[in-house]
Design a protein that fits this description.
heterodimer, A: mainly alpha, Four Helix Bundle (Hemerythrin (Met), subunit A), 2 domains, 75% helix, globular, B: mainly alpha, Helix Hairpins, 3 helices, elongated
Chain lengths: 173, 100
């Protein structure tokens, strides 16, 4: 097997295993840390896809900023466990309702994957040329996508004001 | 080079895990984390298709998705803090005032 295929399988296995553990953990702190591992593996996959810019901002923005925000809130709230007795006794993924729903979703996914993979004739080989340079992405971002880029800044501003307003203690004017 | 289909299958599996997390878990933080898993699965699809089409547009859309994810995380976590302050719980079933 080619080393690239092996790398793909390794990163894919880490991503899937870490994501599964994220939704299986009782303690949100472990969930957040495992999600960071999953994002690291996805970043490796982006490198395999000749997208180093996305790989780097995946680490810096996602693992570095958004996940730290999550971790900060988890520690601030200091409420690690789901709070009913039933949650303590029975693991959230092993209850009868979620078991049935999960089995159904898994069947749907398996059927869709089988349908999609048996239909396509070619195996989807990538073309040789890749747009890998940050220069090309920046050029496109500031010419063709200049307006969405500026709208993004307004979105961030609105989100910032909304977060401050929502998390503020009441009665402070 | 690993074929496109492999990336799409991996992305579908990750998206399914995220969906299961949103439906199954009863913890607001874990639900938000599951949404992040779903967003990342979609990002992987965008980058893989962008690579297959030989254009930079896929990576640019990933950039925008990450911006929206950051805004969503900030506002979502602010709402979680507000709810937790109201009633010391992270269980979404604790807030049913708007439920019909």
């Amino acid at each position: 097997m080619a080393p690239e295929t092996l790398t793909f399988y390794a990163f894919g296995a880490i991503a899937v295993a870490a994501s599964l553990l994220v939704i299986a953990q009782r303690n949100p702190i472990y969930s957040v840390l495992l999600l960071i591992a999953s994002f690291g593996a996805l970043s490796g996959l982006y490198v395999l896809l000749d997208a180093p810019f996305v790989a780097v901002i995946q680490i810096i923005v996602y693992a570095g900023a958004i996940m730290v925000l999550f971790l900060f809130v988890v520690m601030l709230l200091n409420a690690p466990h789901e709070d009913t007795d039933y949650d303590e006794r029975v693991h959230p993924l092993l209850r009868p309702g979620p078991m049935r729903l999960g089995a159904l979703l898994a069947l749907v996914l398996a059927a869709e994957l089988w349908w999609a993979l048996t239909r396509s004739g070619d195996s989807g080989r990538f073309p040789a040329g890749a747009v890998a340079s940050v220069r090309a992405i920046g050029q496109s971002l500031f010419t063709e996508y200049a307006f969405p880029f500026e709208v993004t800044s307004i979105l961030i501003l609105v989100a910032m004001v909304g977060a401050v307003l929502l998390a503020r203690r009441e009665g402070h004017g | 080079m690993v074929p496109l289909n492999y990336y799409l299958v991996l992305s579908a599996i990750l998206f399914a895990i995220g969906t299961a997390g949103v439906f199954v878990r009863r913890n607001l933080i874990t639900i938000l984390l599951s949404v992040e898993i779903m967003l990342n699965a979609v990002n992987l699809t965008f980058v893989a298709f962008g690579r297959a089409l030989g254009s930079a547009d896929g990576q640019i859309i990933v950039f925008f998705v990450m911006t929206v994810a950051a805004a969503e995380a900030a506002v979502g976590l602010a709402i979680v803090i507000g709810l937790f302050r109201h009633r010391e719980s992270l269980n979404p079933d604790s807030w049913t005032a708007l439920k019909w």
